[in-house]
Design brief:
Structural class: alpha/beta
GO molecular function: 4-hydroxy-tetrahydrodipicolinate synthase activity
Subunit structure: Homotetramer; dimer of dimers.
Largest sheet: 5 strands, parallel
Catalytic activity: L-aspartate 4-semialdehyde + pyruvate = (2S,4S)-4-hydroxy-2,3,4,5-tetrahydrodipicolinate + H2O + H(+)
CATH topology: TIM Barrel
Number of helices: 12
CATH class: Alpha Beta
Radius of gyration: 18 Å
Number of domains: 1
Function: Catalyzes the condensation of (S)-aspartate-beta-semialdehyde [(S)-ASA] and pyruvate to 4-hydroxy-tetrahydrodipicolinate (HTPA).
Family: Belongs to the DapA family.
CATH architecture: Alpha-Beta Barrel
């Protein structure tokens, strides 16, 4: 269920509120282009500035529109264990296919604290859980040995790895069971991660180029490494452009330039500088997207 090209979908806003109409169009765009799964209300979905009611609204609306066509993996993490547990219970209640739970940010727990955090959530629900390691955002990295210990819990089924370390990826794969799924959390590292045993990506770039991401990941899964490498090199400039400012500023700007959403972000995120907006426009023209 949890492999392939999975999109970390943006949350569009209109006049400060969740834009259901354009979000529906974004989901249909993803499904029609072969995306293997959808992650609403993750980092790319600006979960940190959504109210709890909005968070739940986006999850429920995603499920309604997707209607079982692809898996829906809801972002339910928090730096408060009780808050993360509450959001994960909600995801289970409304029948999400899985929950993506980021490591607690700001608190900087010990490895034992991380273990207890995830164990407490996993033992309270039956929904499949994917760990999410992104130390550049959270200030803490979950070590491979901790991941291996957590992989023994039956409904902790995988990890989204965005540490930027292939050594860490390799160590996790070597320590965890064969059915534990490792997904790339960094578009530009998806190909090398898959070459050492990763099963796909939870992707930012798939918001704007879903068919190409799907082809690259499927080629890797089919051991067609020559084709996967060709696509990776072709998309590399796009991968990097989407991080010239804090995610999701660039990807939302691209979707705006593609006339798919309004250019609205929640403070403290702001629209890009004029210089970077021009760079993104140039990248979109290079890939014939505008």
């Amino acid at each position: 269920m949890f492999k392939g090209s999975i999109v970390a979908i943006v949350t569009p806003f209109k006049d400060g509120k969740f834009d259901r109409e354009n979000f529906r169009k974004l989901i249909e765009f993803q499904i029609s282009n072969g995306t293997d799964g959808i992650v609403p209300v993750g980092c790319t979905g600006e979960a940190a500035t959504l109210t709890h009611d909005e968070h739940k609204e986006v999850i429920e609306f995603t499920l309604e529109v997707v209607n079982h066509r692809v898996p829906v993996i809801a972002g339910t993490g928090s730096n408060s264990t009780s808050e993360a547990l509450g959001l994960t219970r909600f995801a289970e209640k409304v029948h999400c296919d899985g929950a993506l739970i980021i490591t607690p940010y700001y608190n900087k727990p010990t490895q034992n604290g991380l273990y207890i955090h995830y164990k407490k959530i996993a033992e309270d629900v039956n929904i499949p859980i994917i760990l999410y390691n992104v130390p550049s955002r959270t200030g803490i990295s979950i070590l491979p040995e901790t991941v291996a210990k957590l992989s023994e819990i039956k409904n902790i089924v995988g990890i989204k790895e965005a540490s930027g370390s292939l050594d860490q990826v390799s160590k996790i794969i070597s320590l965890c069971p064969d059915d534990f799924v490792l997904l790339s959390g960094d578009d530009s590292l998806t190909l090398p991660i898959m070459s050492v045993g990763g099963k796909g990506v939870i992707s930012v770039a798939a918001n704007i180029m879903p068919a190409q991401l799907k082809e690259m990941v499927q080629s890797s899964l089919s051991n067609n490494w020559q084709q996967a490498q060709k696509i990776h090199i072709h998309l590399f400039d796009m991968f990097k452009a989407l991080f010239i400012e804090t995610n999701p500023i660039p990807v939302k700007t691209c979707l705006y330039l593609m006339k798919m959403i309004d250019l609205e972000l929640r403070l403290p995120l702001t629209p890009p500088s004029e210089e970077n907006k021009n760079k993104l426009e140039g990248i979109l023209k290079k890939y014939c997207l505008i």
